[in-house]
Amino acid sequence: MSNTRLLSKILRLTGMKVTDLKFLDHGRGLHRTVKSYKNGCRGSQCNRRGRIVSSPGVGRSWEDLTLIGINILLWFAPREIECPTHGRVPEQIPWATRYVRVTYRLEWRIGMRCRAMTQKAAADILHMPRSRLSGLLHRSVTARRDGQRIRGLRRLGVEEIAYCKGRKFATRVYDLERARVVWVGAGKGRETIDRFFCEALSEYRRSQIRWASCDMSRAYTEAIKQHCPNATLVIDHFHVTKALNEAVDAVRKEQWRTLAGEQRKAIKGLRWRLYRHPATRTKGQTRTLNRLRHCHRRIHRAWVLKDEFAQFWGFTYKGAAEKFLRTWMTSALRSRIPSLRTFVGTLKTHFDNILAFVEHDLTNAVAEGFNRIIKIVKNRASGYRNLDAFTDIIYLVVGDLDIPAHVPSNLRTL
Questions:
Q1: Statement: residue 157 has pLDDT above 70
Q2: Are strands 211-214 and 180-186 parallel, antiparallel or unpaired?
Q3: Of 113, 246, 278, 283, which is least surrounded by CB within 10 A?
């Protein structure tokens, strides 16, 4: 067996034949001259065989995996062929993606490593600079998602996410049925969400959306109503509850500022007790809150109204839920608590979209799960300096396209 054939078997070279090899850089680099094997003269567009038109003498290099500390490079001079369908096109490269100067298995290894660890750790394992690995990952993600169409989107979720200090936000759109992120864009205003509906979805795809969930941001709600005429908008359960908790906490803060010294001890540590759901609160915590009736009536009144509002999420009949909600709003207005009156104004603005939860039971719980995963990834890398790098990781971890899986299975590992 010749040395070139033995090396081909050891390195599991698929779709190519080694014609020459040499060690350079004092033995730290292995340069192999290869050619297509049993797959030559195929066009890069439609994979059809064609007549060879030209054979350039200068070859190009593709970086392969590092083996026992030796950098491996493939050298090949792609020919031009006359394709019956597309005319004069370059020859197909069976071991790498078009316009990418790394092999399939190095591309697959980069994706799998960056999915499981930081880019710095992945670069150390793959023996390459971190900036180069980041650039290769970005090109790989962009190439796989380029021209991809969002299909079968029936349940839409929209949420903003912070990716850097200095109040830098991005808008994240996800499919609630498949639990996958489908689009990420810079900013959180109306222009950002309009760009998604106009550029990423066709008019037919927008008409197929039946349900949508988001927070109470006017930019998101107005955009969904305009671009998705057949969708039922449901305000997220989490954000409504969060707004009510903030209104109740505002009452506690107001009382705290008016008291001093020993008088503050009576309401010290109440914040998280006020936030707790009635089903998860202990009897001792309930007794503590009930004692506020005699000394801090406004806090007690706000807490009682908050607990009463929690019953709304358990209704299954829209008529009964509407009657309950209107009665609760009247009680909150009569309490003469400014923060609760403001919350009632929010309910009036989004009344129909909040009431729609009773019939559809649609929430952004999937998004909260995404937030946990994305925060773990972001904290693991100690943050990201730009949105492109952060978007690449989001698509790689929770995207709607399994990017490493697009590499042919027989060209993934060494």
A1: yes
A2: unpaired
A3: 283
Q: Is the dihedral of CA 228, 231, 233, 236 positive or negative?
A: negative
The letter for the amino acid at 113 is R
* Cβ–Cβ < 8 Å for 108, 405: no
Cross-strand bridge partners of residue 265: none
Tell me, what's the pLDDT at 166?
67
How far is 219 from 51, CA to CA, in rounded Å? 56
**Mean pLDDT score across all residues of the chain:** 84
Rounded Cα distance, 235 and 212, in Å: 8
User: For residue 101, what is the DSSP state?
Assistant: S
Alpha-carbon distance of 19 to 375, in angstroms, equals: 49
Higher pLDDT, 299 or 29: 299
* CA distances from residue 91 to 37, 53, 63, 83, 96 in whole angstroms, order as listed: 13, 10, 19, 10, 12
Element (H, E) at 389: helix 387-398
The torsion angles phi and psi of 36, rounded to 5 degrees, stand at -65, 140
Tokens of 193: 């969400």
pTM: 0.78
Q: Give the span between the Cα atoms of 48 and 196, in whole angstroms.
A: 36
CA distance 246 to 57: 71
Relative to beta strand 29-36, strand 71-76 is parallel
Residue 253: CB atoms within 10 A of its CB come to: 11
Of the candidates 37, 8, 340, 401, the one whose C-alpha atom is nearest the C-alpha of residue 183 is 401
If you search the block for the tokens 């007794």, which residue do you land on? 287
Q: What is the mean pLDDT of residues 253-276?
A: 81
What is the distance between the alpha carbons of residues 240 and 354, in angstroms, rounded to a whole number?
Answer: 8
Question: Count of CB atoms within 10 A of residue 397's CB?
Answer: 17
Q: What is the dihedral of CA 192, 193, 198, 200, to 10 degrees?
A: 90
Task: Quote the pLDDT of residue 413.
Answer: 67
